Amino acid sequence: MIKSQRQQMLGVVLAIATAYPIILFGKDEAVVVKDARHLKVFYEEGRFAGWPANNGIWQWGNEILVGFSLGYLAPPEQQGLHQIDAGRPRNAMLARSLDGGETWSVSEAGYPDGEAGPLPTDIAFDASGFALNARGERAFISLDRGRSWNGPYRLPFADIHLRARTDYKVLGRSDLILFLTAQKTNNREGRPFCARTRTGGRHWNQFAWIGWEPASGYSIMPSSVLMPNGDLLVALRRRDNDPAEHNFIELFCSRDGGLSWRWLANPVSGNGGHSGNPPSMVRLADGRLCITYANRDEPRTIRAVFSSDNGATWGREYVLRRGAGEPDIGYTRTVQRPDRKLVTVYYWLDEPRSERYIAATIWPAPCGVAEITYGQVSRPPVSDENPQFAWQPGP
Description:
By secondary structure, this protein is mainly beta.
């Protein structure tokens, strides 16, 4: 009887493996997403294109705009993680797709030069073409989906020495909350906070630190999600150096519009070496949360984790891509298309000491909301289209 049950179970597992071609079973605890397609957003011989997470991503349906930095590949004798030629110019670039990330056009961002002035005081944040770029202590604003930019403007609270990247949420016509990073009290990077205006930029009179100041390492590069009930979630890139380097991703929650924050979870408890990598968090159409990031350790991967309980707990890791030529990869930005496929943009290299380029992976999120492990086999979650594969935990 037991043997018959085991045979039946094995048959069901094989059926699932056939029905779910996006899942590969392997020795790694992470699940490899098979049906991920990798595209080159920007590649040029001799160039170094990198760091989308530093520059921002914006989305209007199938129109996606993402920023990145473009420099020159360093000479072969230069060592270090980032092999970019410091003696040659860098440019701020924008890549735009009008078809959900399938094809891209690239141009210089065109951010204005000059001394930063005060932010405008009558911004309509809910305008259809509104976009804001924040970097360092400066901001730029577009009202035509990034085709032209106004600025530079001085970010609020710049006197605490900002090291900002672009992350914000529009909460109303005159209501916007920015997620920024400042120096720590020892003048090192960094500690995150949020700043909010309800007056179209006239007053920024709400400020709150997100978490405590790290005694060692840093807490930087917030990635936020606005929940349907008004809660705010922020994923953070964390590094702790006591007693040794420990890189991870941390999650905080605010239930009062950003006035106060509490720790919620560590979605990624360990994210390898090489200073880790920033998170990009999105809320999916089915209600789950997804965080993408890079792990720079071998086999050098782009990964994702999911939560089906509003961030309280997180499942196993999924691998979108593996096998980069060196650890200098990642800085993902992820959006979900109207057809529910995900588009993850990051920088990558194929061979050691080769060009860094901007890549996009288009991939389907694993279906369902639960994931159950039986022995060494990870069963795929429930599919709305295949409810007969709704596994339940055994005794």
